[in-house]
Structures are given as C-alpha cells and as structure tokens.
C-alpha cells in the first residue's frame, strides 16, 4: 500500500502526463486527492479513467476517496477468505505485533472509549482476535484479493479504525443485507469500501453488531 505522502507519479499505473497535469492543479501527493472532485480532474489533459481508478484504489486502501470517483471497471476482483502471503511489491500495510488494546488506550479520551467499545463489539460478533494492520487499522480474520489488473494482497475481513475525525468501519458494505442493516444503524456516511461514523452515540450498536456478524459470516465476493 502506498503512503498518503507518496508522490502521485510514484503510484503504480499512473503515467507522467497524469502526474504533471494533477501537479499543475496543486495535487502532488496521494493524500492531496482526498476530497478532490474527480469529475473536474477527469477533464485535464493526460488524466484518463485508468489513472483515476488506480488513484482511487490507492486512496481506498487508507479509507479515503475522491468526490464523484471514477466508475470501477466492470471486471470484479476475486476475494477469498484466508491469507496467501502473496502481496504486491508496494503493499506496505500488513498485520503487526502491536496490541490493539494498547493502541486504543493511547488515543484521546473519546476515541479511546469508543475504540474499547468497538473492540468488544467486533470481538463478540466475530469470535476472532483483533490484529493491528498498519499504524491505525484494527482487523479481524483475513482475506486475499486479486484485482482484474493482477494486483493482489492480504487484508482483514472486517475491522475498524478510530480516527480523529471519524470512526471508519471496514468490510460492511456491498453485502446481501448491507443496505437494510445500514438503514437501521443510524447516522453514517458511506465511503469507498467503508462506513464513516462521527461518534458512536449517532448509531444503534445493536444494528451494528448484526451488520458485523452478517459481514463475518458472508463469504467474500458473494454479492
């Protein structure tokens, strides 16, 4: 996984013309694209849909996205339960030995409290141990993905990240009952591959528990 500070021109699959055109707009790093409007950027000379999809995919690996992102390719990725150890050479986010409880304890008071609630909720819903992935994501179980481009890697099945601005919940969308359960959950916004929540008081934890349980029991790629 590329870091958000990675220059756009170093993202695999993004050509020099696209990188130059984006740099002319003051967008030089992957992180600078978070919240940018793709419909406007797509009109720039040298910036094509393939580069847009690659950049959006790189952002999504960090729970970020562009506004009006490029439509994904119709060819679906293959996702299977379990890890294989086969990862793209630039994939930097891996499972670590950091204790998730220790990580959560070191956050600010509100996020620490919410993080401990989510540790218990996800743990009970999945019956699996929590594992830190990268510096800030907490995952349960493992899956392996292979994109249509051939890019592949291991990641977690479901998880969350108690970020400063929002709580990010992963692995809960694009499932047979996602829309139904999200409607019951309360206030949230949907991102590329994740659900964003401002604070736990905004949502129904019972509905979230049911959604996590449903996601955990659903085989990857079944919808």
From TrEMBL:
This is YdhG-like domain-containing protein. Pfam families: DUF1801, HHH_5. InterPro entries: RuvA_2-like, YdhG-like. It comes from the Bacteria. Residues 118-215 form the YdhG-like domain.
């Amino acid at each position: 996984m590329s870091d958000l500070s990675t220059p756009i021109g170093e993202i695999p699959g993004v050509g020099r013309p696209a990188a130059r055109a984006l740099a002319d707009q003051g967008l030089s790093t992957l992180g600078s694209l978070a919240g940018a409007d793709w419909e406007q950027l797509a009109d720039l000379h040298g910036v094509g849909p393939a580069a847009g999809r690659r950049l959006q995919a790189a952002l999504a690996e960090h729970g970020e996205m562009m506004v009006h992102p490029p439509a994904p390719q119709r060819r679906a990725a293959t996702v299977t339960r379990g890890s294989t150890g086969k990862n793209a050479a630039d994939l930097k986010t891996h499972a670590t030995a950091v204790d998730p409880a220790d990580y959560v304890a070191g956050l600010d008071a509100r996020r620490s409290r919410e993080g401990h609630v989510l540790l218990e909720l996800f743990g009970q819903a999945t019956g699996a141990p929590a594992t830190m992935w990268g510096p800030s994501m907490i995952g349960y179980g493992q899956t392996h993905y292979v994109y249509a481009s051939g890019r592949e890697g291991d990641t977690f099945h479901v998880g969350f990240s108690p970020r400063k601005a929002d709580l990010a919940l992963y692995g809960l969308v694009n499932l047979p009952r996602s829309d139904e359960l999200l409607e019951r959950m309360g206030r949230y916004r949907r991102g590329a591959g994740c659900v964003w929540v401002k604070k736990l008081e905004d949502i129904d934890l019972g509905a979230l528990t049911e959604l996590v349980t449903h996601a955990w029991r659903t085989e990857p790629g079944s919808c």
